[in-house]
Design a protein that fits this description.
Blueprint (H helix, E strand, L loop, with lengths): L4 H6 L4 E3 L1 H9 L5 E6 L8 H15 L3 E6 L3 H4 L14 H15 L8 E5 L1 H4 L4 H8 L4 H5 L2 H9 L5 H17 L3 E5 L3 H13 L6 E5 L25 H8 L7 H7 L5 H13 L4 H17 L1 H16 L10 E3 L6 H7 L6 H9 L3 E3 L2 E2 L13 E5 L3 E6 L3
Helix pairs in contact: 10-11, 12-15, 12-16, 13-14, 15-16, 17-18
Length: 397
């Protein structure tokens, strides 16, 4: 357990560049300039983002000057960190749409009343070509190719677009513009954060301390959590959805989620791993405790208890839900697949038929096997897709 404010700020970090500089800054006894940048590349923040947001909130609570930078300009370039293929730039319309929700969603973790929000287009959009050339002249191609993602792609003959080299330069300039003293990021961002130190030194500024946090694996336990991989838990998803998704994590990931998503102490997580390993802890029960604990953070105790009860009734005991189930009228739908589309349980008839073929669709608890099956229920019936999505279908009046 961390014993001091300094230990708490370091707890969970897997790299600090450098500890001596960090200790020296804290000894000054003044609010430090702390920044975290997030690019609005998707509409939603998820539990993976919360790992570093939680650390940023600890700096807020310690009284430091915290800024959340929304990378509306860097999102146009596309962050190549950790990628084995070229990332195309996002369009401005998509970036604007994603930006709308970022600050509100970050408020699930951060006390936004005590956090400044800035957009890096404020200083990057005004740079001239001459300014960009000066910035680029301070870094070499060899330095860029020292990054694992770039070097691996170069060795494999995979394309690297020139605009991708601009990303770490632009992120580094954020630190110069903010005169940042501490920058946080996931451990895939270390190269970019360290480049910020170089540019600050060249600008005659004190070099920022770089602090990185581990990346949270997604629900598959393999790839890092991301919406594009479909293995994520969104911060603003409803409580039953969050709980149900968390129950899908592999048993061996329970201690890691306890550490990175529930923010339990490292010693407690090590004890949990040992108990799961020797059989004194039951994976299903520990997973339910963990899921309830995480849902509580984003929806409160009542919603967390309700989500657990809903899971136990509908998944473990296979009961059909009776409360808060949306209702639709059958209308002109004649096939089960058409009803699914009308109910919003599938985006198209083809998608609905794939779900039926995968044995994931039931009417009143009975699996539908034929993708072209007709809707035959003459009384109100419960249509379900998977274990957590239900709709009550009412016959036409």
């Amino acid at each position: 357990m961390p014993h001091s404010a300094q230990d708490q700020l370091l707890d969970g970090c897997d790299h600090v560049e450098t500890r001596a500089e960090f200790d020296g800054l804290l000894r000054q006894g003044r609010p430090l300039v702390v920044k975290l940048g997030l690019d609005p590349t998707t509409p939603d923040l998820h539990l993976g983002h919360a790992v570093v947001l939680h650390k940023l909130q600890q700096f807020v609570e310690a009284g430091h000057e915290v800024t959340l930078i929304i990378g509306d300009f860097t999102a146009r370039i596309g962050d190549p960190s950790g990628r084995n293929e070229m990332r195309p730039p996002l369009g401005e319309e998509q970036i604007r749409a994603n930006m709308i929700t970022y600050a509100n969603q970050a408020g699930k973790v951060l006390d936004m009343a005590r956090v400044r929000v800035r957009y890096n287009s404020e200083w990057l959009a005004g740079l001239s070509l001459a300014d960009v050339l000066r910035l680029l002249s301070r870094v070499t191609v060899a330095q860029m190719l020292a990054r694992n993602d770039f070097s691996e792609r170069y060795a494999a003959g995979a394309p690297i677009a020139l605009h991708e080299f601009l990303y770490p330069v632009a992120q580094a300039y954020d630190s110069v513009a903010m005169r940042a003293e501490i920058e946080l990021g996931g451990n895939d961002q270390l190269f970019n954060l360290l480049m910020g130190r170089e540019y600050q030194a060249q600008a005659g500024q004190r070099e920022q301390v770089c602090m990185t946090l581990p990346l949270l694996e997604g629900l598959d336990g393999l790839k890092k959590m991301s919406k594009s991989s479909g293995n994520y838990v969104g911060l603003t998803e409803d409580a039953p959805s969050q709980f149900g998704k968390l129950m899908r994590i592999p048993d061996e990931m329970i201690p890691r989620y306890a550490r990175l998503a529930a923010f339990r102490a490292e010693s407690e997580c090590l004890q949990l791993a040992a108990a799961l390993g020797n059989g004194t802890a039951h994976p299903m029960e520990e997973k339910k405790k963990l899921a309830e604990e995480i849902v509580l953070r984003y929806h409160g105790a009542a919603a967390a208890r309700g989500a657990r009860d809903y899971f136990e009734r509908t998944v473990q005991r296979r009961e059909l839900p009776t409360d808060n189930v949306p209702e639709i009228h059958l209308g002109e739908a004649r096939r089960v697949s058409d009803v699914m589309v009308a109910a919003g349980l599938a985006g198209s008839r083809r998608a609905a038929e794939r779900l039926i073929s995968g044995n994931g669709v039931k009417v009143n608890g009975v699996a539908v096997s034929d993708p072209r099956a007709l809707w035959t229920a003459e009384q109100p019936a419960t249509l379900s897709v998977g274990a957590r999505r239900f709709v009550r279908v009412l016959p036409d009046r």
